[in-house]
Design a protein that fits this description.
The protein is an alpha+beta fold. Helix content is 19%, strand content 36%. It has a 5-stranded antiparallel sheet, with helices on one face.
Length: 81
């Protein structure tokens, strides 16, 4: 089940194949960030149907930074390239 902190993979759009962390869920849309292209200051709203849920999660806490997100997701994103 998609929830706050879930790591998801974009399946549609120009960002297809990239991994993101879900910051929040708003109806049928997820607010996603990756710390590199989509930073915390400007997250992306994406239709949940266009995301694939992974089994991994990322802790969403007060110490969350773009740099931490980028480092954590770079491993997954680099494996796909």
């Amino acid at each position: 089940m998609l929830q706050k902190g879930s790591i998801v993979k974009s399946m549609k759009g120009h960002d297809a194949g990239r991994f993101y962390v879900a910051l929040a869920i708003e109806g049928d849309r997820a607010i996603i960030v990756d710390g590199k292209v989509r930073k915390l200051a400007k997250p992306k709203k994406k239709n949940i149907k266009h995301l694939s849920l992974t089994t991994k999660t990322f802790p969403i806490d007060d110490d969350l930074t773009d740099n931490r997100l980028k480092k954590a997701l770079s491993i997954l994103n680099n494996e796909m390239e």
